[in-house]
Write a structure and sequence with these properties.
Elements (H helix, E strand, L loop, with lengths): L7 E3 L2 E3 L6 E4 L8 E2 L4 E2 L9 E3 L8 E4 L2 E6 L8 E2 L4 E2 L26 E6 L5 E2 L3 E6 L5 H10 L13 E5 L12 H14 L4 E8 L7 H7 L8 E5 H4 L2 H20 L4 E4 L4 E6 L10 H14 L3 E4 L10 H4 L5 H18 L13 H5 L5 H9 L7 E5 L9 E5 L5 H10 L4 E6 L12 E5 L2 H6 L6 E2 L2 H4 L4 H16 L5 H4 L17
Parallel strand pairs: 13-14, 13-15, 15-16, 18-19, 18-22, 19-21, 20-21, 22-23, 23-24
Antiparallel strand pairs: 1-2, 2-3, 3-6, 4-5, 6-9, 7-8, 8-10, 11-12, 11-17
Length: 515
């Protein structure tokens, strides 16, 4: 487990761990700035969030942040100099996975004392935080049709159905020209099924063209979907084409609205919350404020019986050993490593992608030197509890507590997999300022620093920069985030919902060959 409790803010710098050979600039620092707590003087212009050598680091020596290796010095670095990609080398190093060696069960809160929220209880016992009607396309060829159907249901046309949050289209760019069998098709179909049966949907329509490789019949059979009162299907080539299918879809949704509107929120346990954990546009403060604060909220949620889904496999690479040690069993730990090896040995070989070292330009500017450093912060979103399960992309999440789902680091693709797996909320940390939103699961945005929060206040829900400012502790911020989970789950709109985001963020992972 990454030890975060020994952080110390001292003037212009932050010491994260006594064993570190770097400190982090809390504010922009100039040459000559005295750092008395470290007995050194700053010898570089160092932006806020960047690392500074706190002692001499020899060439080849590990650079330690939270006492975790985030790279190696490619030259001797004197105390007071900035440490970043220009003097940091990315290379492999041995990690002891020590599967399940640090496993500790969660101390659960008694059921009668658990927090509650106002949710939509479905006939199968699952609980939604929103009440949408969804329109899904099997293939890009029916994308326009599903969007036209959803667009017809304007707020004015839905004004008599106040309990319906909207009619939303889930279209995508694939479904044909792809492998007809195997993982690519299975992945697309289980993603679609996860949305069609999501507890945040009162009902769904699935619309195909008719000649695509992702045949509607194959989708229904593979995913054990059955057409009924809450699930309708259309094939454009059998329904009379574009115009007639749009009209038939509109009429079908009209017939569903009254029943969907009859559903009322009721008091349910926080154990019914499943939160997808995302981070994007990270900076040097991500691992100091928002990510560990979100982790603290997930620790609280786990004690109340809920679930947090950590994902973005390339963004735990390098610190995966801190997760395998907390696994509930060796089997769970080994399943995580099997996913890492698939990425490294099969999927990304020879490619200029993040898991092979290079983080995005925004992360670089934010102060993150490489993927190891990005991963250090990313992994903190899952909290400090035991790893209870590992899932492939879009698989149904059934375990409680902290779990992992294999996804890419690209936020819309990753969140799509989490929502398909059952996430009924998404929590998203950002240091640079992400404008992401999702449907049907509402997205909560957590800013890592106060300047960005105030600059982008229309998009950010919580300012975790208060931790840096000294006006809130990490645990206080975790409690604040947990309480916002309950409020948003009960119907309070997040900033991304107010802005109407989420109509274009359904992006299934495209892993196969196109032909």
């Amino acid at each position: 487990m990454i030890e975060t409790s020994q952080k110390k803010l001292s003037g212009s710098i932050i010491r994260l761990h006594p064993n570190d050979n770097i400190v982090v600039a809390r504010v922009d620092m100039t040459i000559g700035t005295d750092v008395p707590s470290e007995n050194m003087v700053c010898k570089s212009q160092v932006p806020a969030g960047y690392k500074i050598a706190s002692r001499k680091i020899l060439k080849g020596e590990p650079i330690l942040k939270y006492a975790v290796t985030v790279g190696f010095a490619n030259t001797d670095i004197e105390p007071g100099y900035m440490v970043h990609s220009h003097n940091t080398e990315f290379r492999e190093f041995d990690r002891d996975y020590a599967h399940a060696s640090e496993f500790k069960p969660v101390e659960m809160i008694p059921e009668n004392e658990r927090a509650t929220f106002q949710g939509y209880v479905r006939a199968n016992g699952r609980v939604g935080t929103r009440n949408f009607i969804g329109i899904l396309s099997t293939v890009n060829c029916s994308a326009t049709v599903v969007n036209k159907i959803a667009d017809w249901f304007t707020p004015e046309r839905l004004k008599d159905f106040p309990n319906v949050d909207g009619v939303v289209a889930f279209s995508h760019s694939i479904g044909c020209g792809m492998e007809m069998t195997g993982e690519p098709m299975q992945l697309l179909r289980r993603t679609m099924a996860g949305y069609a049966t999501h507890p945040n949907l009162a009902a769904a329509l699935i619309i195909g063209l008719g000649c695509e490789r992702n045949q509607l019949k194959g989708l229904m059979e593979q995913e054990n979907l059955t057409e009924g009162s809450n699930l309708h299907t259309f094939i454009m080539q059998e329904s009379g084409g574009t115009t007639k299918t749009i009209q038939a879809g509109i009429e079908a949704v009209k017939a569903l609205l009254a029943k969907a509107n009859d559903v009322k929120r009721e008091t349910v346990s926080a154990a019914h919350l499943t939160v997808g954990l995302q981070c994007g546009g990270s900076d040097g403060f991500s691992s100091i404020t928002a990510n560990p604060a979100l982790g603290a909220a997930i620790d609280i949620l786990a004690r109340h019986g809920g679930t947090g889904i950590l994902s973005e496999t390339p963004e735990i690479y390098g610190v995966e050993h801190t997760l395998t040690r907390r696994a509930a069993s060796r089997e769970i730990g080994e399943k995580l490593i099997e996913r890492i090896r698939w990425w490294k040995d099969e999927y990304s070989v020879g490619r200029d992608v993040q898991i092979n070292g290079q983080v995005s330009p925004g992360n670089q500017v934010g102060g993150l030197a490489n993927i190891f450093e990005k991963s250090l912060g990313s992994s903190m979103k899952g909290g400090t509890g035991p790893l209870m399960a590992v899932y492939k992309y879009a698989e149904p999440v059934t375990a409680k507590g902290f779990v992992f789902m294999d996804t890419p680091g690209f936020d819309p693709v990753s969140a799509t997999g989490q929502i398909a797996g059952g996430a009924n909320l998404v929590a998203f940390t950002t240091g640079r300022g992400s404008m992401f939103g999702s449907k049907p699961a509402p997205c909560i945005k957590l800013a890592t620093n106060s300047p960005m929060y105030h600059r982008l206040t229309d998009d950010m829900d919580i300012n975790c920069g208060e931790i840096l400012d000294g006006t809130a502790t990490l645990q206080e911020m975790g409690q604040k985030i947990f309480e916002l989970f309950l409020k948003v789950a009960s119907g309070e709109q997040s900033k991304s919902e107010v802005l109407g985001l989420g109509d274009y963020e359904f992006v299934p992972w495209q892993i196969g060959i196109m032909s």
